[in-house]
Specification:
Layout: E1 2-6, H1 17-31, E2 35-40, E3 53-56, E4 62-63, H2 67-74, E5 77-81, E6 85-86, E7 90-91, E8 97-101, E9 114-115, H3 127-144, E10 149-153, H4 158-168, E11 171-176, H5 180-184, H6 190-202, E12 205-208, H7 211-220, E13 228-230, E14 252-257, H8 266-277, E15 283-288, H9 294-303, E16 310-314, H10 319-327, E17 330-333, H11 343-349, E18 354-357, E19 370-372, H12 377-389, H13 391-406, H14 410-425
Parallel strand pairs: 1-2, 1-10, 2-3, 10-11, 11-12, 12-13, 14-15, 14-17, 15-16, 17-18, 18-19
Antiparallel strand pairs: 4-9, 5-8, 6-7
Length: 426
């Protein structure tokens, strides 16, 4: 099976789970005999090629004098967003949205020229600009390559997938790694929601990373259940280097690691921490990450008078994440809305027992994790206390959980996806 696949990031240049998921899936697909042409806005030259053929959209020359581009260009809008946008792992606030016609932004003489677009591939204020131009480049790519089906990952690439479908007549599968309701709750950005729904409406099939996400797609985006399937992420592409780190404190360490945004529920973690500390002061709580709620969380910790027992590390990546897990005795993911959630799998892989919210996709595949409603801070506090004070319980969750994670395989995801492709093409 030859697949034209549109993504936004690819290892080692990743911001969160989206790039990790794309790598795990494409590697498994190639191992089963599929050929993947993976398009990214900007390639740096050091991307792994063991899983896919990487195509740099910034290298593609398009002829803007063609009738197709003229029509697309005349209808093109740019949207400026005044804060960072990170698709899979969550978003900062981005409510100041401005629509401008492209005729106000570009000279019409470009229509008579062949040109390239230089993409940043970042989540900056020009993101929506790049999303639109990425779709234009997709038209050229759709005519250049030979493939059987089109696959687009997350809302940033949906327009590109639709353009490729219109040009080639091939079937389009879109992959929902997160929705606007996960990122923003009920305070959605209407522009992003519209792009998501546009992609879903025009897709031949929709793949979701969990039943939790599938239900949102059906109920909030009005999609036919027969058109929507769940294919879970794998975990066997996660690599953990067992390192020895000497703890600077003698107390137990309980960790929150993720973006400090509405979606991740950091305030519930702090509320639970305050309850635990009423009964045991020999625990340190760590909030590792950054985000638009960081200042509020610092203020909340001060208000609770638990600053002595609480640490904010800022954003961690690479080896620093590995070291943080090595220092941790419990990992907590209190997400309000989590399409899947790779970090608990990473924690278990690093021999750390986990407490996760029931409002997460990963709770559907993990048995050996303590699951609580994100809002139930009493249950969360009890779970933390038990894992810290009962070593046998902690060891059981580590042992059983690690075996469970090893069985969550990308190979199974790839097989299900291939079966879906063949069903669409039959």
């Amino acid at each position: 099976m030859r697949v034209l696949m549109f993504g936004w990031e690819y290892p080692p240049h990743i911001t969160g789970g989206l790039g990790t998921a794309c790598f795990g899936l494409t590697k498994a697909m190639v191992n089963q005999g599929d050929e993947i042409i993976f398009i990214v806005p900007k390639a740096y030259g050091d991307e792994s090629t063991e899983a896919a053929r990487i195509v740099n959209a910034s290298d593609v020359v398009i002829d803007l004098s063609s009738d197709y581009y003229k029509e697309y260009w005349s209808n093109l809008s740019y949207i400026e967003v005044n804060s960072k946008l990170v698709p899979y792992v969550g978003m900062d606030d981005y409510f100041n949205v401005i629509n401008k016609r492209v005729k106000d932004r570009e000279e019409t003489t470009h229509l008579n020229n062949k040109r390239k677009y230089e993409f940043t591939g970042k989540y900056t204020s020009t993101l929506m600009d790049e999303v639109e131009k990425y779709a234009m480049v997709a038209a050229s790519l759709a005519k250049e390559y030979d493939y059987d089906i089109i696959h687009a990952h997350d809302w940033l690439t949906y327009k590109a997938g639709i353009v490729a479908k219109n040009i080639s007549g091939k079937k389009l599968v879109i992959h929902v790694h997160a929705t606007e309701f996960d990122r923003s709750g009920e305070n959605i950005n209407q522009t992003v929601f519209d792009i998501e729904k546009y992609g879903m409406d025009n897709a031949d099939h929709i793949v979701c990373v969990s039943d939790f996400t599938r239900n949102i797609v059906i109920t909030r985006y009005g999609q036919n259940p027969n058109k929507v399937s769940t294919i879970y992420n794998g975990a066997n592409s996660l690599i953990y280097n067992d390192i020895q780190v000497e703890k600077a404190v003698k107390e137990k360490v309980v960790t929150f690691l993720g973006r400090i945004t509405f979606q991740k529920g950091p305030d519930y973690f702090i509320e639970a921490a305050a309850k635990v500390l009423k009964y045991d002061k020999n625990i340190r709580f760590v909030m590792a990450g950054s985000g638009d709620m960081l200042n509020r969380m610092v203020a909340l910790v001060a208000k609770k008078r638990i600053s002595k027992y609480f640490h904010f590390t800022g954003f961690l990546k690479g080896d620093d994440v590995t070291k943080m897990f090595a220092l941790s005795d419990v990992y907590v993911m209190p997400s309000v809305s989590e399409p899947f959630g790779i970090s608990p799998l990473e924690a278990i892989n690093a021999n750390v027992p986990v407490v996760i919210s029931k409002q997460s996709g990963v709770s559907e595949v993990l048995k050996y994790a303590i699951k609580v409603d994100f809002w139930d801070i009493d249950a969360m506090a009890n779970a933390i206390y038990c894992l810290v004070h009962y070593p046998a319980l902690s060891k059981m969750f580590i042992k059983k959980g690690k075996k469970e994670v090893e069985e969550i395989r990308w190979e199974d995801s790839a097989k299900k996806l291939r079966n879906l492709y063949y069903k669409l093409l039959s």
